[in-house]
Every structure is written in C-alpha cells, then in structure tokens.
Amino acid sequence: MRFIVASLLLPGLHSTLVAAAPKPSRSGALELLEKNCLECHGGKFVRHDFDLSTRENVLKPGESGSPALIPGNANESLLLRKITHADEPAMPYKREKLADPEIAVIAAWINEGAIYERPLNTAPWKEAEHWALKPLKKSAPPKTKNSRWAKTPIDQFILSQLEAQRMKPSSPADKRTLLRRVTFDLIGLPPTPEETAGFLADKSPRAFEKVVDRLLASPRYGERWARHWLDVVHYSDTHGHDQDLPRPNAWPYRDYLIHAFNTDKPYARFVQEQLAGDVLFPDDPGGIVATGFIVAGPWDVSSQMFITDDTVDKKMARNLDRDDMVMTTMSTFASSTVHCARCHNHKFDPISQAEYYNLQAVFAGVDRADRPYDLDPKTNAVRQALLRKRTELETKDKQFIDPLLSDGMQERIAAWEKTLGEDKTWIVLDPATFTSSSGAVLTKQNDYSMLASGESPETDTYTITAETDLKGITGFRLEVLTDSSHPRNGPGRQPENGNFHLSEIRVAAAPKTDATNKTIIALQNPTTDFNQERWEVAKALDGDTNTAWGIFPETGKPHLAVFEAKENVGFENGTTLTFTLDQLHGRQHTILRPRISVTTAPRPVKTQPLPENVRKILALSPDQRSSDQRIELAIYYSKQQIENDLTALPAPKLTFAAASDFTPKANFSPSKSPRPIHLLKRGDINKEEGLAVPGALSCVKQIPAQFELSDPNAEGARRAALAKWLTDPKNVLAWRSIVNRVWHYHFGRGIVDTPNDFGQMGSKPTHPELLDWLALWFQEQGGSIKQLHRLILTSAVYQQSSQDNPKYTQIDSGNSFLWRMNRNRLDAESVRDAVLQISGRIDLTMGGPPVKQFHFEHPDPNNTPIVDYNRFDVDNPENFRRSVYRFLFRSLPDPFMDALDCADSAQLTPVRNISVTALQALALWNDAFVVRQSEHFAARLASAGDLPNQINLAYELALNRAPTRQELRQLSAYATQHGMANTCRVILNCNEFMFLN
Fold it and tell me: What pTM was estimated for this model as a whole?
C-alpha cells in the first residue's frame, strides 16, 4: 500500500519540483550525481549493476529489466523515485534525502534529455573533504537568542541549530524523571526510595550535580560502563565457532574494565593498555590483563589447535584471526571499517589493501592464549622479566646470546654439570608427634607413617613433627599410603566421591635445642607421580585455601609428591621439622596416611632426564665442544634457571590475553618472532604479493602512517606503535570516536549515529562543530571520561523532558536536533538487575569468575558443553549477581536476555537493537526468573503492613513514585483476587518500568 500511494503522488510532486526549479543546469545535475551517487554506482564500485558514470551505461536495463533513467520523463524514471524516497531502498543509501531544490535540478535535467556534457569524475572521493578526516577545530560556542537556557557550552551548540530550524527546546524534566534517567544511565540500577526522597528534598542549585558526583563515585558505575565496552569489543566467556568451548580465564579483562572506569583511567592510557599494556607498562599487572581486548572476539579452536602448521587451512585460520584483531581495534578506537579492505582497496573510504595488511602485521606475533600475571606488582615485575628473558633466549638474537659465553656463565655451567651425576639420598623420618585439629583418631604404623581415621569434619589440619640430625636438607617427599581398613583401600578417590583433598602444605624448621623458634621453609618445583587435572600440585604452595590441591584419581595406590627447598635447611646441632597439612572437603572417613622423607643430595638446576641433544654435548669434554654447542648448552641451562626461578614465585593468576610466549598445545604454538604478512590478492591466501610492514592509515594526514621501529622483530614494539598512533592528540578519528560513543549511551544515538563507522557509508554528524569541541575539550581534561559524563549530564539538553511536540515531529521526526530528550527502553541487563534490586535479592559482590546462570554439563571437553537455562535453579545464589558477571556463551544465549535485545557476542555491537515485541511481553510475564523474583518482591513488601502500604512501597521501589488513587484502587482489587506476587508481576511489566522518560 505504501508503494502504491507513493506512486500516485509522484506526478504532482515532480511537477511542483520542476516548476519551482530554475532553468536546468546540466553541470549542476552532474555535480550532484558525482557527490551523492557515484561512489556506489560507477566510481570505485558498481552496486546492483547500476552505472551512472556514462549516459550509455545509465540507459542500459538494470536488475529490474528496465533502465533506471528515461530521458525526457522524470516521473517514470526509477532514479528519481529513489532520490525522492518514494521507493525502497531510498537513496543516497543510509544518508539524508537530498534537499528539494537539488532533487528539482536532477528532475529538470532528466526532462531535458539527461545530457552528459562531460564525463563524470570516477576518481575516489576526496578524502581531505570528508568531515571525519579534517583537523579538529575548536569553534567558540555559538551565540543564541535564548541566552538563559544554556547550562553548558554543549547547550549553545544544540540551541543554535534549534533556533535555525525555528524550534525551541522542551521544558525541563521533573526531578523524579531526571533522577531515574541519570541513575540508570550511570549505574544501570533504579534509584532507591531513600535516594529519591533525598533528591526531592534537596532544594540547592547543585542538587543534581551532587547526584551525578555520587553516582560516578559508586562502584556500580564501573560495572555499568564496562558492560557497554564489552558490547563494543564482542567479549564472551567462550571461544565461539563450531565447538564454542569455555574460555575460563577471560573474566580478568572484564574486571580490568570495571576498575578502569571506576578509577577514571585517562583515555589515552586506557587505549594504550589494551593494545600494548604488557610492553608500555611492564610492571603494572593490569597491563597484561588489559590486552584481553585484542583477543576478546571468537577464536577457532579446531583450526588453530588441530590443523598442521604450514598448511593452507592453518594460514587461512591465522589470517582470519588477525582480521578480527584489526577489525576490533580500528572499529573500537578509530570508528573505521578498515576490515573492508581485506580483499581489495576500500570501496568507499581512502584505505588501501596494503594499509589493511600493514595493520595485520602489527598483530603478526601474537596469538590468543592464557598468560600468567600477579596481582602483587613486585612479583609481577619479577615474573614478567623472567618471561621476557626466556623469550629473548628463544629468539637466539646475538645481543642475548653473547653473554652466555662469558667466563662467569661457563663456570656456573661447569658447577651445574658436577651435580648431575650425584644421586639423591632419601631418609624417611619417624614422626615424633601427629595431631589433628578435629581430634581424629590417630594410629602410628610400623612403616614410619601415621594413620588418621574415623568421622571427619569438612576441614581439618594435621601437624607432623619429626627430628633429624641432618644439617643440609634440600628436598621433601610426602607419600600418602594405602590402607586396607578404609574404603577402596585408601587414597585416590576424587573429592566428588566422598574423600578429602589437601589444600596447603607448609614446612617449618627449628633447631633441636629450641623447637619453638620456627622458620617457614620456601618450597618450589613440586612434582607428583599422579595426574591432578585441575588440582595441580603447585596449588599446595600458593597459600590460598580456595584452590585446593587433591590426591587422585588412582584409587588404591600410594601417591607421591616431591618439593625442593629454595635454600638448604638445617642446624648445627640437629633440626626439628614441622609439617602442616590442611584438609578440605572431607566427608565420612579421613583417609590420610602420610610418610615424610627428606633428601641431602645437592639441589640440581634440572633433574633428569636431559634432552638427547644436551646429553650428547655433556658427553664431550668442555674443550671438545664447539661454540654452537656451548651456546646450546648455555641456553638450556639458562632456561632451566629461569624455570626454577619462576617455580619459586607464588602461583600466578591466569588471564586470556594477547600472547607471544605460551606453552604449546597440540598444533598451537607461539611464533618465535612476528610471522611474515603478505598482501593477499583478492584476499586469497594462495596469492601472496608484497610483504606488509607494520603501519596505520595514511588518510589521517596529521600523523605518519608508517612506524619507525628500531627492531622489526620486536613483537611488542609494533603494538606499542599502533597504540601511540591511535592516542596521538592529532588522531582526528580516535578522539572524535570516544566522545561520540559516550554521547550515544546518554542520548540513545550518537552525534554520528554509526559509532563504528565514520566513513562515507556511515552517517554524517548532526552537530559537527559540537563533536569537535567535545573532542578537544576531552583532551584538555586529560581524557577523563567521568568529566565528560559530568559535562553532558549537567547540560540543559540532557535534562529536557521527553514530551512529544507534534509540530516539531513534522520538522524533525528523528529528533536529530534534540528538541526533546529521547525516550529509551531499558537494556536487558538493566531490566534484570533492576528486578533483582527491587526484589531485595541482588548480590553486589564485585569481580571474580563469571557465574553460570544455567545448568551446565561438559562430558566431552573437546565438544560444545550442554547448557540448559530451563533446568537452572532460579534461587541459586549465582542468579543474584549483577548481569555483567554472567557467563556469556556466544552460540548459546540466555533466552530471556536475548528476547530483550542483549548483545550478540559473536558480533561487534556498537549500537544495540531496541525492539518492542510480543516475545518480550511474554518473557517478562512468564520467565521463571521474573515469576520467582516477583514472589521475592511480594515477600519484601509484607513488612510494609496493610495492602495499600505494600502497593505504595512497590511503586516507590519499582517506579520511584507513589501510585495515583486510581492505580491504588485497581491494584488493591487485583491483589485481593490474585495475590501480591502477581501484582508485583504486573508492576514489573508496565511500560513505566521498562522505559526511561
């Protein structure tokens, strides 16, 4: 119907346009076609087989079978139907309609015969003229007629355009509406009744500013704005692709974001950390975690792990992996669609294919893998220095290898060689005492062991004391023996099946003459003779009872763990040793029968077996070894020293991040230096052309696109160079991008409403002078995002009412000029978190591993887990955490959150869909989460007293106001008939709860 009506109206419309037009200007019409149409239809690109570049081409039949232009008959020409928006898709594509006088010029030109008096200019669009690439210009805020309305310079820019359109801003929003709006904006939760009452009672001029400051200081702020950033970078807790396996160590990046926003990290530092924090800030533990940005997207496990290197398929997998890194980086920080140049020069923007592969070269040395880091900055600095040294040795670069041939290093190697042939001497100690904190039954055995048996609590601590005359103890051995008196013959049963596991092992030494003068012995290099799976033996030394070390799974067999002492232990007149073993998760019987041994052998750098090549070198006398052999032996020795030093450190945390040094697994291993990147003809992995060099975009004229790298093989220097290029104050794309992104989340649309695309196919800014003013102001404030929030939120334009004005809607239906505040629907996380807060069940614990709000089974670790949202207990405490802490599956989204337009983590989501569907209404009424929280909501209201008081409190909690008399009467009647829980469901389903005015 819409199509038919538009057709009937066209003749009159065209007649009016032609009648109003001046004498046809052929050159004017051609200029309009060049400016608005040619980039898609005859310039770099011929879309839908429609070529406007010559008269001959434009008169050819198109996809519809008819020519798009009929000379002498504008009314029947498809071209005019498109540019008048009478036919879909309207043209220019995704851009504003041409002005009526411009359409009239083209219509008159067609009616005059559509004469091409010159060939059209098919050269690429002039990049210098494109708004996003022009230098930032800080214009003075314009003067306006209504000088009293403006609260900030922002308002002067907005009001200037409104006055030019003969419009006025809307009246201010009432205080309740404003408080609800800003509270959801900044922390993603509704204001409490107490906060509402306090704001209404505060009559001071700074009342609203104080609210803004309070919300920005809240830890909830970081949780809210980190969620926005996770959308932009397509973060998930799984890898995606066909297997979609869990990514258990992705979450530290999420916590990094929350902390960065809460501490108002300067934006330049924020960007640099996410691209090269491990390089630019090596002593900051957050520098490693922040590079989770680079690897936040999907990762093809099957291709990366199980396809052999140097195959076409493996090269293709790596190429696609780097493409995701480039796309995420440039879309996020520069609002640029660089990834469109993977197969050819960008069709619309001045980005060459060579520049795209130069950006790929920036990431040529990194993969996606778990990386160790430490929360303690000192420990982290030591660990990262050791890891860097290990990487340097693997490169075999001359500057790192030459010191290995020094006399001092050769002496250390000679001393190490002497220890290799010496056997360890183990001595079993007879325990003098064996105590249990729970009072378990203890029995001494005849093989120098003690047996604990009987009923056991959840936790227990065993203390074993032994004396020895040894003066130099270098190692300890703990054996857990079998015993026929216990189920399944003793140790080896997993904790899930009912036995214990040990959490912590501590050893202290004291002189025999003063057994109370104890010194804790630092242990390292733990090894075992059994498979611990996720209960690795290193957990026995990390000091954290939450990461318990277990002995399993070989039931009925003795188990052995060996620990080295970091320093020799012993006293001149003999030594008293105290061994403390913590037991967690004990059930039924305690099955512990430990035996302790010590060794007096020298502690070697590396125990046997030695690699074959090392053994062959050691078989030669030092004077028979070649220079290459001495270097090889020195590298091996140095790497083992590094491994020993790493093991001696407290157990590290792990984070999924950009990595160039990690433990190989299957066919997935790090590159010793950045991989060579070639330009691929038409993106074909089999058609390599020129070699790419690390670089950026030449269209940003103010800063060089090529990086000056002193060492082209230094992987981290490439990422550091890109980070500095992006944060250069002259990078016009980057600074416009971030202020536009923040504006978008406050107003529901950006000044440029395509936040990831500032190119030709993106939208033009509605207020370009304001965008530049904000970008430069933001730089002047040191890149403080909190200051940017304050500026926007305290503006008069933000504080407007969202009330409609039919007259203005006719002029500006999309509210591009912001004559009122946009009315936005709550996003999925805000709905869920608000329901939890209102019901009184929200758990505001911050950080840590994500919570699985679904039933989870993973019987086959190589295949997609079994995930069932319907079988999850809605009263599980994990269900009460804020939504930012949910475990996010790429391919298995939560149906409730999905119905509310939650972001698809398989895609970059700069702007969420905002739909209003029947499915949402059904979810909000019938979902088990909402039903159960409504019951909790009703239980919370019971303390308010009688039914009217309960409904009053319900409104204050959910809607931040009291009910009207009519609402109170209607809901009281409904609650009497259907119960208070159902009444709460009604309130949570109303539009006033779901939308922000």
Answer: 0.72
